[in-house]
Amino acid sequence: MLLCLRILYVSPRLKKLVLFFTVLVNGQLVLPQLVDNSSSFSHIDARSYLRIHYDNDLFTNTDHYYTQGIAVEWVHPVFQKSLLHKLLLTTKDSSAQYGAGFNLFGYTPTSISNDEILYGDRPFEGNMSLKLFAISTNKKRDLRLASALHLGVIGPAALGEEIQTNIHRWTGNKLPKGWQHQVRNDLILDYQLNTEKKWISSKAFILNGMAAIRAGTLNDKLAAGINFMTGQFNDPFERQQKKKTAFFLFGQSQVNLIGYDATMQGGLFNHKSPYTISSADISRVTIQASAGIVLNIQKLWFRYSQSFITKEFRTGGNHRWGGLAAGLSF
Hints:
This protein has helices at 5-10, 12-24, 160-171, 262-265, and strands spanning 49-56, 65-75, 95-108, 125-138, 143-154, 186-201, 205-216, 219-232, 245-261, 285-297, 300-309, 319-329. The protein is mainly beta. Strands 1-2-3-4-5-6-7-8-9-10-11-12 form a 12-stranded antiparallel barrel. The two termini are 36 Å apart. 44% of the residues are buried.
């Protein structure tokens, strides 16, 4: 967790922002992920479920920066008995869900038609990780806490080049060039906490404050913001779940404070990457937002979303992508 202290030393002005975000969520630490399945609008009210999420910027007619994400999660009571799950935090007097997941993310520069390094652009990068997580809800305090441990690799070992090449081949698109310059192999070992506090609620609307922290070898970040749900749904903070069908809109907006990002700066231990973005060119503050729709029928759960993030490095630009998710409870 010492790695998260980098954030506080990036700029003295960030200290005031960190204090503001802490007050914003009543002192409760909560980091939004690219594929975010820990938020209340992603809640599946079951002890066991399987869910698959797929992000791609082709949904927004682009093909660069965060270009693809695949996440698989399995929630089951058996994971509560795992020794590694003892490292995860849960709230007192709460109901908890325990699970394991697999994440695969890929990044590219603005052009995948050039064999040369595109200086001033995002480097090619792929990362692959296993995730152990716990999601607990204290329904008396209207508080939700998610904790996760990530273990994996960045670089060629994550198979980013092979996956993007095959997808482009299967879909009849031009094959990507330039992956030989990707960020080199390194370790992913991260710990993450996300939390939400319900502020306002009615039968058809919920507004939450949220915040997060992630520290480790892939990302050092802080974040805070708000999210909402509106429509027909079961309140994820309530004890009684009566509706068998849910259909609602959701939205989330947050500010991210960036300390370190290995997808752009390279890994902590391997400094042999042919091209990375310097620390001085990293955007230390970004704004991220997402919105979408959820349909839950009996044991089936579906989501479609669109996401946006402001530029993540000095010479970069804003970016958008879309995501699909499907889950089955049992």
